[in-house]
């Protein structure tokens, strides 16, 4: 893969990773609830979910969606339901935190599970890869070039959210965030539910 083409790929992956959304909210929540290593765990497993979609893209995800539109619709609805469920959990935690300032605790197992499922349950990721990453895949592309695409998407996504978790868990930042955990939980819940409703309402553009 030419360097200029790879730089374009890396820039697109970086823009996708850095855009605010449920993934950022997930890493923030687990960093608040479990500390640095739990937040980093969520980031790494989210990257594995991203890598899975990247792998499907290089294997022809666009053709699969075109051939089985009902399957894609089912995936999006299941993803919307899961995002809504996470949003409701976050809102409930926010309401409790308003009465007593206790952060919703999490552990590495929960962070790993939700990291993967938020990535897999976010239909925006599917459309991101089909619309953008698939442009880098050609019929005669070698297995090495396809592996570079998958690894680039995973490393950039994981690297960004690991950096977020490390910065947020800084000794000066984390206590400030924990004091406002109920507001962060509420914002997270609203974001997740809004995305779920947007998915159910119709195609994302």
UniProtKB/TrEMBL annotation:
Residue spans crossing the bilayer: 35-56, 63-85, 116-137, 144-163, 183-201
Can you say where in the cell this protein is located? Answer: Cell membrane
Give the keywords, sorted. Answer: Cell membrane, Membrane, Transmembrane, Transmembrane helix
InterPro entries tied to this protein: LeuE-type (IPR001123)
Entry annotated with the keyword Transmembrane: yes
- Which Gene Ontology MF annotations are present? amino acid transmembrane transporter activity
Membrane-topology annotation of the record = Multi-pass membrane protein
Q: What is the predominant subcellular site recorded for this chain? A: membrane
Any one GO CC term of this protein is:
plasma membrane
Q: Which PANTHER family match?
A: AMINO ACID EFFLUX PERMEASE RHTB FAMILY, ARGININE EXPORTER PROTEIN ARGO
The protein in question is named LysE family translocator
């Amino acid at each position: 893969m030419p360097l200029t083409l790879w730089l374009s790929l890396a820039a697109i992956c970086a823009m996708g990773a850095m855009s605010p959304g449920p993934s950022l909210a997930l890493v923030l929540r687990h960093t608040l609830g479990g500390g640095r290593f739990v937040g980093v765990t969520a980031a790494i497993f989210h990257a594995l979910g991203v890598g899975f979609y990247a792998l499907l893209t290089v294997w022809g995800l666009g053709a699969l969606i075109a051939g089985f539109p009902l399957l894609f619709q089912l995936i999006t609805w299941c993803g919307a339901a899961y995002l809504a469920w996470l949003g409701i959990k976050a809102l409930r935690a926010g309401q409790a935190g308003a009465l007593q300032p206790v952060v919703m605790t999490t552990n590495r197992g929960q962070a790993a599970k939700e990291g993967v499922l938020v990535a897999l349950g976010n239909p925006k990721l599917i459309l991101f890869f089909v619309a953008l990453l698939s442009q880098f895949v050609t019929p005669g592309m070698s297995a090495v070039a396809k592996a570079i695409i998958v690894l680039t998407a995973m490393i950039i996504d994981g690297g960004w959210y690991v950096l977020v978790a490390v910065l947020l868990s800084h000794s000066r930042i984390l206590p400030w965030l924990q004091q406002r955990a109920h507001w962060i939980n509420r914002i997270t819940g609203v974001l997740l539910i809004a995305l779920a409703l947007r998915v159910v309402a119709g195609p994302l553009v």
